[in-house]
Amino acid sequence: MLCQFSFENFKSYRDETVLDMQATNIEEFSDSLLRSPNPDRFSNILPVAAIYGPNGGGKSVLLEAFVYLVSRIMLPIRSAKVERTNHFFFTVKNAAPFLMDDTSKKEPMRFQVYFRTELAEFRYELSVCGEEIASEALYRTKLETKRVSPVMIFERDRDIKLGTAMKQANVVLPKDFNTSLPMLSFAYYSYNISEINEAVGWFKKCCMMNYSNGLMESAITLFEDQEHRESFLSLLDRLGVPIKNYHESEVKDANGNTHHRIDTAHEVNGKTYTLPLHSESQGTVKLFSLLPLAIVALEAGSVAIVDELDAKLHPQLLRAIIRLFTNPETNPNHAQLIFVSQDVSTMRSEFLRRDEIWFVARDDESVSRLWSLYDLQDARGERVKTTVAYDKQYLEGRYGADPYLKQMMDWRVPNAKMPEKAEEE
């Protein structure tokens, strides 16, 4: 489970930004929470984070920061041909620090992630300047131990300090150790260390998809085994999509080029009819891309990162996808869904918790900022109540992340620089 992800100086985010998946002490939808095995020391975790905001505010960049971190670890492992990365995986191009001032562009991009496996909670830190790694560290805390302080696995700054687990594995670093290579990646493909394997195993399971560039049939990954095929077709049926089967093949066009092709099977009046997937609706094509990701994430108990989840989907289908993660019966393995959306039909108190609803917008210095609905307080220090229509107030500009930022704002985030509130009429 992802507990918390923070980063700074990445693209439009200059200052430290924290996406906190630890549940706050509110009552709504408590049954959906991912329970901690040690509630005295570790908080419960949210299954979903929904991110809203204006175009150009930094919603996709927030996801890119997480994807960049995962990519820095997993791409060297894939290059070493130790293992393939997840099929549901994309990399970030043109990663750069904040360029809108003279100081930040010379500083490293910094990332920190807390996550849990079945046995422990990890903290991983990475600082990158250009392609060079400026610092890196990994710490581990057992979930069921009474020990409060984490155990250092390794620390890397100007020098590299190895913890007990790596010393016992007799880790030896090359004299010309690649300064752009994460220690976590190197230790994974060079040695067999249980703590390293455990940490990389979490990154390896992350599922990430980007729909901002449209849907390509050639990029859709479907299931070959019968069990997963049946799960996929069953989900389609539950969502009201009348497709009984599918078939994948390689075909050649008139120029002799080979293309991946998917055909769908429909039953009408007792007869079976076959259609190419590209003749289906864009919503159906989206489900062919999205549902396999959801099935893999739910089965593995992993984090699913999806940009533009709502694109091409009917609001009811969007809600159904989200419910797969918020319903303990369909999410017994503690998977999580973090997504960007423009569809405010999901921004309702009867559907999401206040700490699951997040907003992103740029301030007057062109800095992207992130805050949750739960963070917002009015002048009396009172939080947004569950009795109000979140979507209506959001569209009215009350939460500070609508396209009309000058209309601001009946709420504020304590201790955070936010767009100024408009003068009262």
Report a brief summary of the structure.
The chain has 425 residues and is of the alpha+beta class.
Instruction: Label the CATH architecture of the largest domain.
Output: 3-Layer(aba) Sandwich
What is the CA–CA distance across the termini? Answer: 46 Å
Unreliable stretches: 404-409, 416-425
Taken together, the total number of domains comes to 2
- Mean pLDDT comes to 87
CATH class identity of the largest domain = Alpha Beta
* Helix and strand pattern: EEEHEEEEEHHHEHEEEHEHEEEH
Helical region count? 8
Strand content range: 15-25%
Number of strands: 16
**Percent range for helical residues?**
10-25%
Determine Rg (CA atoms, Å). 23 Å
Structural notes for this entry:
With 425 residues, the chain is α+β, with helices and mostly antiparallel strands. It has two domains: 330 residues, Rossmann fold (3-Layer(aba) Sandwich); 68 residues, no CATH class. It contains eight helices and 16 strands. A hairpin with an 8-residue loop joins β6 and β7. α1 packs parallel to α3 and α5 packs across α6. The chain is globular. The C terminus is likely disordered.
